[in-house]
Design brief:
Blueprint: H1 2-26, H2 43-48, E1 53-59, E2 62-71, E3 76-85, E4 88-99, E5 104-111, E6 114-125, E7 128-133, E8 148-154, E9 159-166, E10 169-178
Antiparallel strand pairs: 1-2, 1-10, 2-3, 3-4, 4-5, 5-6, 6-7, 7-8, 8-9, 9-10
């Protein structure tokens, strides 16, 4: 009996959660099923669809490639970024989405140059998303993280720019053009 309590109850709870989640997803989920509003996708999730696809990326004169895919039922966007830098290949991954509970955009970035998570949170105004980021490239002389900004701006349906700055000084632009 102790073994069942130790392993069986958590497994049963997990299975019940998966069953309810699957049933919820099949039915369309959301407010119409009596679920809280924050559990439903909004217009922000529809805008993630604009980012889907394969993009050429230009970073300070260096060409890269980004493949953006909607994941987990369209709740999030995953970006796979690859670029050849002098002396090394660079790859990065981003997961981005709109947090309906906190009502803000969230992006998590990791890459092959450092074993650190960059977490950004932001708001959207007039179609421009401005993130406050803790990117580890933005540090003071002692190595302490300095908050920076990251701005996603659309330039038509087939191009957008991700501009990064630290202390009001632009540090990098990534210009994406849809293939």
């Amino acid at each position: 009996m102790k073994r069942f309590v130790k392993f069986g109850v958590p497994a049963l709870a997990c299975a019940a959660g998966l069953f309810v989640g699957a049933a919820f997803a099949q039915e369309g989920g959301g407010v119409e099923m009596g679920m809280p509003a924050w559990m439903s996708k909004g217009k922000e999730h529809d805008s993630l669809k604009k980012l889907e696809g394969t993009w050429d990326a230009m970073v300070t004169g260096t060409a890269g490639k980004a493949t953006n895919t909607l994941i987990l039922g369209g709740n999030f966007l995953e970006q796979r970024f690859d670029m050849a830098m002098p002396g090394m290949a660079f790859e990065g991954r981003m997961i981005m989405g709109y947090d309906t509970l906190d009502k803000e955009w969230v992006a998590i970035w990791i890459d092959s140059s450092k074993p650190i998570f960059s977490i950004s949170r932001g708001t959207e105004k007039d179609g421009v998303i401005t993130f406050i980021t803790n990117d580890p490239g933005m540090t003071d002389p002692s190595g302490k993280r300095v908050p920076g900004t990251m701005t996603l701006t659309w330039a038509g349906d087939k191009s957008y720019t991700l501009a990064m700055s630290e202390g009001g000084v632009k540090t990098m632009d990534v210009v994406y053009t849809k293939k």
